[in-house]
Amino acid sequence: MATLPVTDATLRLHGPLLQRAGAIAASLFDIAAIDFRDGEDRSPTRPRARRVSLSRGAAPAIMREGSAHTAVTYADPVSETSLAMILAAMAGPEDPIAADPESLSVFALAERLAVSDIPVLINGPTGTGKEVLSRFIHARSNRREGPFIAVNCAAMPETMLEAMLFGHQKGAFTGATSASEGFMRAADGGTLLLDEIAELPLPLQAKLLRALQEQEVVPIGSTRAIKVDVRIIACANRDLPTEVAEGRFRADLYYRLNVFPLTLRPLRERADDVAPLAFALALRHSAGTTPCFTEGALAMLKLHSWPGNVRELENVVRRALLLSHGSATIAPEHIVFDSPARLVSHLAIGGLAVAHGGAGMMLDAEDHELGATRKLSSIVQHSEARHIMEVLDACGGNRLRAARELGISERTLRYRLASMREAGIEIGRHAAGGGR
Fold first, then answer.
1. Same domain for 285 and 195
2. Cβ–Cβ under 8 Å, residues 329 and 292
3. In whole angstroms, what is the distance from residue 306 CA to residue 301 CA?
4. Number of C-beta neighbours around residue 248 at 10 A
5. Are residues 417 and 433 in contact, defined by beta-carbon separation less than 8 angstroms?
6. Where are the alpha helices (DSSP H) in 6-72?
7. What helix, strand, coil percent values describe the chain, rounded to 5?
8. What is the pLDDT of residues 377-431, one digit of tens each?
9. What are φ and ψ of residue 26, in 5° steps?
10. CA distances from 77 to 55, 90, 190, 277, 329 (A)
């Protein structure tokens, strides 16, 4: 078990929570840079350390006090909320946030390969944190003192890509009024992240391959190669083997980059990451005291399928902060997902009567009487629950088969069923029976 830098007094008061957090923190953060203290401890913080103050109280609370101090009040040291709050409090501005075993295994593997200079290819859907993982690899490598340059290949004009990557001489083309070193030379001695590398045009892929093989670049307008010392991390949100098979990506460049592949799963398959990410995003987007998510709100977040991954979660958190209107908590009624409203004929979803609403809004029976619109969050939650129940019934209650049909792991399915129970959703006899 990881040892956190805490005083004996702090460990006596908050040992159970710190021991839970320590096993995770050591694999994600520079724990030597964190100063853990009891909330009543007023002694000075160690130089250049981030202070995390812990207090026991009846109601959870988390508050940022300046850029280097976060105060956490927790009620139950073994609750998920307490762990999520302390992980969010411990994280620095560019640190990853994770608690799911699969995510932690990816970061543990990334730390092992960080000490080498081999290329890394990170696969995963948009918004899953590929750049965060790339920065983590750089920060744990021997190149940490060197530059980290992130380049989004899809965001650069195709006509300027070569000049922006490899540099150019003054007068090399119209508009080149001065020389430019390019991204590869700017990353000399450090790490170059090539995000969305599948968007590179084929001719430039050939030039990139040569630059990687020879560790040198030839700026546009020059005949002299310039040596560079760069580690490459490439990210792709499309399946590169398919791109290679269909002729849109060079096979030789793919094999050059694919020395050590890492894959980040969609957020819906990393349910244990949702709570600490939600608290970290709430801290980022609030000033002073940050509202705490209730157990019901966290259950709703975990039930969602997150097609937009962490970026969608950030939208939901920012929206909840506005809807909570300075409240001390973020409750289920403050959670509104990005799913668009649509007309639904009279349906029964988990016991909720859903009727046509004007302009594409949805109403339940009570809201229909009051003439008020119902927020989408409950509809989305119960719609997903109903789909899970339908698949379970079709599979005769066999959770392993149902998980395969749903495209999730059996562990994720078990977690969602438990979250549904916590949210008061009737899950039916098949789900409760736990058949395999």
1. no
2. yes
3. 9
4. 16
5. no
6. 8-28
7. 45, 15, 40
8. 455 556 677 778 878 888 888 888 888 777 777 777 877 787 677 666 666 655 5
9. -65, -25
10. 11, 16, 41, 19, 19
- pLDDT category of residue 284 using cuts at 50, 70 and 90: very high
**What pLDDT is recorded for position 321?**
94
Which token pair is 349?
């979803």
**Pairing status of strand 120-123 against strand 260-263:** parallel
Whether the CA torsion 208, 142, 50, 312 is positive or negative: it is: positive
Is residue 342 one of the residues assigned to a domain?
A: no
Structure tokens at 207: 């030039």
> How distant, in Å, are the alpha carbons of 4, 95, 285 from that of 29?
11, 7, 21
Give, as one character, the DSSP assignment of residue 288: S
Total residue count of the chain as it appears in this document: 436
Written as six digits, the tokens of 59 are 């109601």
Longest Cα pair distance anywhere in the chain, in angstroms?
78
H-helix or E-strand spanning residue 34: strand 34-38
Q: How many domains does the chain have?
A: 3
Whether residues 50 and 122 fall in one domain: no
The backbone torsions φ and ψ at residue 250, rounded to the nearest 5 degrees and listed phi first, read -70, 135
Q: Please tell me whether residue 63 adopts helix, strand or coil conformation.
A: strand
Tell me how far apart the alpha carbons of residues 331 and 329 are, in angstroms, rounded to a whole number: 6
**Residue 252, Cα to own-chain centre: how many angstroms?**
31
Closest CA to 338 of 290, 299, 375: 375
Arithmetic mean of pLDDT, 130-151:
96
Higher local confidence (pLDDT), 177 or 396: 396
Residues 136 and 67 in one domain: no
Separation of alpha carbons 158 and 150, rounded Å? 17
Q: What pLDDT score does 65 carry?
A: 86
Q: How confident is the model at residue 358 (pLDDT cuts 50, 70, 90)?
A: very low
Query: Can you tell me which residue has the tokens 């506005």?
Result: 322
3-state secondary structure at position 36: strand
CATH number at residue 359: 1.10.10.60
- 154 three-state secondary structure: coil
Residues 262, 277 contacting (CB under 8 angstroms): no
Q: Look at residue 249 and give its three-state secondary structure.
A: coil
Q: Could you tell me if residue 341 is inside a domain?
A: no
Same domain, 38 and 144: no
Phi first, then psi: what are they for 284, rounded to 5°?
Answer: -65, -35
DSSP codes joined into one string, 157-197: -GGGHHHHHH-B-TTSSTT--S-B-HHHHHTTTSEEEEETG
